[in-house]
Amino acid sequence: MLVGPAKALFMDEISTGLDSSTTFQIVNSLRQSVHILGGTAVISLLQPAPETYNLFDDIILLSDGQVVYQGPRDDVLEFFESVGFKCPERKGVADFLQEVTSKKDQKQYWVRGDESYRFVPVKDFVRAFQSFHTGRAIRKELAVPFDKSKSHPAALTTTRYGVSGTELLKANIGREILLMKRNSFVYMFRTFQLILMSFIAMTLFFRTKMKRDSVTNGGIYMGALFFGVLMIMFNGFSELALTVFKLPVFFKQRDLLFYPAWAYTIPSWILKIPITFVEVGGYVFITYYVMGFDPNVGRFFKQYLLMLAINQMAASLFRFIGGAARNMIVANVFASFMLLIFMVLGGFILVREKVKKWWIWGYWISPLMYAQNAISVNEFFGHSWDKILNSTASNETLGVQVLKYRGVFPEAKWYWIGLGAMLGYTLLFNALFTLALTYLKAYGNSRSSVSEDELKEKHANLNGEVLDNDRMLSPSNDGPIRMNTGNDSAIVEENSSPMQRGMVLPFLPLSLTFDNIRYSVDMPLEMKAQGVVEDRLELLKGVSGSFRPGVLTALMGVSGAGKTTLMDVLAGRKTGGYIQGNISISGYPKKQETFARVSGYCEQNDIHSPQVTVYESLLFSAWLRLPEDVDSNKRRMFIEEVMELVELKPLKDALVGLPGVNGLSTEQRKRLTIAVELVANPSIIFMDEPTSGLDARAAAIVMRTVRNTVDTGRTVVCTIHQPSIDIFEAFDELFLMKRGGEEIYAGPLGHHSADLINYYEGIHGVSKIKDGYNPATWMLEVTTIGQEQMLGIDFSDIYKKSELYQRNKALIKEQSQPAPGSTDLYFPTQYSQSSITQCMACLWKQNLSYWRNPPYNAVRFLFTTVIALLFGTIFWDLGGKMSQSQDLFNAMGSMYAAVLFIGIMNCTSVQPVVAVERTVFYRERAAGMYSAFPYAFGQVVIELPYTLAQATVYGVIVYSMIGFEWTAPKFFWYLFFMYFTLLYFTFYGMMAVGLTPNYHIASIVSSAFYAIWNLFSGFIIPRPKVPIWWRWYCWVCPVAWTLYGLVVSQFGDVTTPMEDGTPVKDF
């Protein structure tokens, strides 16, 4: 945003994930830029440190949608003192401002001893500000109309975009080329897949096995052409995922007027054309002559040109669907739906003469109809098909007879009509894609859960009502975070959480020591290309320390110091790389299998199943992680206790939702993450940046939770980026690292951080801390690499020569020895619960998730019902007609299209659902909740009833409308084959996600199998016509068995002869 000409900058939470020193530098740079260049900047920050807060000129304080204060920073404390509230000496002003308007935190700042405290609502603050001198000055300023004559003509822009349309287009072309280079794997894999399919098709429709001696064999050539068209169309399917996943960035940039939609859509279309030449060329060049198509060079290049146009049309169609749907699940369903309509009404599955009059319009708008007509005419008007069989008065060539038999227009001009239609559809779909991106908004919006109590508090704040304090304040909310007192013992304040009175479940306090931990990874190829000769990159360089029960330790350092890496190594979360050194638990060597049972890990990214409630998330974690001897009543009591501790009780029944889309807010999700680990009753808890992304008040709530957890005697370690003074001094000890993975301080903070300050101020050349300065920020500023170079020292060396280091080494040695009479951790089983319980718990959660997921289940049932009605009306009453072989082809076509498309829809729509839950599975499995089998069991079993309902809905509607024979055995056989077909497609979709690293690759790999199953299904080429070297796959292909079962169950016992005398069952 800064590189543009904008003078008014609006920045929201720009410090999330940054340490306080970096945040200070960024805001300081913005301050200088605004002051020098005369700009305006409005910045919202979470937990700004005092020195960062002091950089601002003006402050705007909002509460419940109203301006409580707006004006100079220097006057804000004066205003609140005039109302009766004062900021304590060692309290950050920003933190004070966020808490003073909150009903739960306000009382501690009341200073008028002569008056009893009563809650001052937002309404009263607003009224007081209006009469305060700053408020009066603002009102006076706003009362004077703006004088336009004093403004420079160039002050406001007169153009919508910063540069000309040509420049915008160039910029987007450059970016699209860059993205294509970095996504080259997708295009290479797609090309490889198409070439692989061309080899399979080439050897299946091998020219030595392809005869031109009958209309029936001409139909095999028609099948080969149809398959080629389908392959080229399906090849564009990956554009759907690529489009949808790029849309969030596009919508952000479009709304900020970076560029119009057309400047984005034109490059995404034009730049794909060269790739189309390569992909289509690979298919056509390999298959054309080997399959034995007409050996005329002109017809070869005409087929190539048509296939290029078909590929562009398909890619444009999928881009349009992605842009209009804006959601992967919805886009997948509607893409499958469009393909189905185009395919069924394309003239190959159901010939034109058999299309009902109420559906003939669908035939004429289907792009596949034009493609199939054009490619068929190009082939069958060739010299190879000139021979005349069974001479009649009309003397029609074999080629014309084949075209008429398959319902294709026998006129050469249809090649050019088809080619023109493909180009027309390409332009149309790209135009619609541009319109969709111009006028549609981003899919969904961010919503947070608000509890009933919070709503009542907001109402009271706005209207000045007084609510019952006992109802509004929960015990754990009242009072500040307990500060450390400079020693190692946990001091309990009077007003602490109920958890302090003793949890319902006991636990074993454990210490964790680590000595000379080194961690390295293979040197990245990019660094080797730049001349680095080492084979390994060392991220941790011999760090040592000790974490003890009842001691809250902060793990800190600048970004890139290795904080999270060290925590992952200690917690056993690193699956790659090389680890050296000793880690012991209460003196015994750490074994990951047992350690996972007594430890909890709160990840920085709050990963939870979106479709379950807060209480259900906690119940699931407790069910699987607490020992079997804990009964359900005690388990529920413990969960209630933990919810009280982390202040989640008001949100008990709120759905978790997806981050940034719906459900819980960032701060609520953070507390849920902590609660999910706490209900496992661990002895050691690791927390990766528990306050990141939270405002000061939310961070204080989280830190109260953490502090109360430590006070129960647990060992807790937190990485933390930019703590306020309150939060920083709530820790007992600090483990400080510098960039490069070395420790430079490990020890107590002391009262008001005195021990830390004395240590660094004792180093020659280090600047003294200023009064009121945040010790955490000062510590990070004085220990940077730049400071080391300026002072000519190495803080790591100084620490290793200090008395503190020697004391720590002695403590590590002491803690590494088992206590007399103690025993090593032992659990008879790897998991807390039996496999049966794990299966039941996973099935329970999957059941809740599926029931609350309408975008998946409701859409698929709607899609299935609509498809059933479409098929019923398209193939109306054709099931009982068996006088011609084409009638049986039509009946088979209804089965083939349904199986393939509803199956593919099931497969594609289940993949995003599985992909979202897979990240949750990785976290829960790493936490030792369950093994892979129970999770798979839950996902598989929950599909059974939903798929049964889906198959029944489809089967009942279609069976009756198409007019198949109404006998119980035939009807139930039809349902049986449909049910198990939809099941194996769904399970294949799950398997594809499980075996591939991400959803994109899963969708590309899946499309290859759709093509193979389609090819060997028995509809495009019958099994007797398949060459001997491929016939084995006909017995392996699941769709072939489905189609065989459906056809045989309906027609296998029918002995009625057709027009040519062949019994139906011998067809």
Structure description:
The chain has 41 helices and 14 strands. The protein is α/β, with parallel strands linked by helices and 1067 residues long. The protein starts with 7 loop residues before the first strand and ends in a 16-residue tail after the last helix. The relative contact order is 0.09.
Largest sheet data = 6 strands, mixed
Tally of structural domains: 4
Question: Which spans of ≥5 residues are poorly predicted at pLDDT below 50?
Answer: 469-478, 485-502
Large-scale geometry: elongated
Give the tags:
1067 residues; alpha/beta; Rossmann fold; 4 domains; 4-stranded antiparallel beta sheet; elongated
Brief sketch in words of this structure:
This protein has 41 helices and 14 strands. It has 1067 residues and is α/β, with parallel strands linked by helices. This is ABC transporter domain-containing protein.
Question: What's the topology here?
Answer:
Layout: E1 8-12, H1 20-37, E2 40-44, H2 50-53, E3 58-63, E4 66-72, H3 76-83, H4 93-100, H5 122-131, H6 133-143, H7 165-182, H8 184-204, H9 215-234, H10 238-255, H11 261-270, H12 273-291, H13 297-325, H14 328-344, H15 360-365, H16 367-380, H17 398-405, H18 414-439, H19 452-463, H20 469-472, E5 512-522, H21 525-529, E6 536-547, E7 552-557, H22 563-571, E8 578-585, E9 588-589, H23 592-598, E10 599-602, H24 614-625, H25 632-645, H26 666-678, E11 684-688, H27 696-710, E12 715-719, H28 725-728, E13 733-738, E14 742-748, H29 754-761, H30 775-782, H31 785-791, H32 795-800, H33 803-815, H34 835-851, H35 854-874, H36 885-926, H37 932-962, H38 968-995, H39 999-1015, H40 1031-1036, H41 1038-1051
Parallel strand pairs: 1-2, 7-12, 7-13, 10-11, 11-12
Antiparallel strand pairs: 3-4, 5-6, 5-8, 8-9, 13-14
Helix pairs in contact: 7-11, 8-9, 8-12, 8-39, 9-13, 9-16, 9-17, 9-39, 10-13, 10-14, 11-18, 12-13, 13-14, 13-16, 13-18, 14-35, 14-36, 16-17, 16-18, 24-25, 24-26, 24-34, 26-27, 34-37, 35-36, 35-37, 36-38, 36-39, 36-41, 37-38, 38-39, 38-41
Function: May be a general defense protein.
Subcellular location: Membrane
Membrane topology: Multi-pass membrane protein
